[in-house]
Amino acid sequence: MTVRPGRAKARRSRLGREENIWEVVAVSTVPWHKSRQRPISVLDLPCAERTVGVEAALKLPNVMMLVVEDTCAQIAHEDWQHREPTCWHPQAHRCWRSEGRLLRAKKARLKELAAQCLDAPD
User: Do 48 and 57 form a contact (C-beta atoms < 8 A)?
Assistant: First the structure.
């Protein structure tokens, strides 16, 4: 499945300014009759730089916790990137960079946790 932007819709905000809102349209690259036969069987964990089977995530609580933590870390990182202050506010920029260091440390801990959870012999 791929995601492509849809059409922009114009709307008026409460302040009277016109804003463009983009719709996101999901487009399946697999014919509909085949997509029912192929369930998604692998989850991507970008912060941990791993992939995990859906069945393992559903059966093992440690793996499910890893999936949730990775998702939360990814959302926090994307939120952090969108909040970069301007260069005219040096104190805010220093705080923003220190928050980025904390998020990178969390990502490193997730990689270690993934190695412990997924590489451990059963």
Answer: no
CB within 8 Å of 57: residues ≥ 6 apart: 43, 63, 64, 67
Residues 99 and 80: beta-carbon distance below 8 Å: yes
SS3 97: helix
Residue 1: per-residue pLDDT: 45
CA distance 34 to 68: 29
Tell me, what's the pLDDT at 22?
47
Interatomic CA distance for residues 39 and 52, integer angstroms: 14
Nearest to 54 by CA among 62, 64, 65, 46: 64
DSSP code at position 41: -
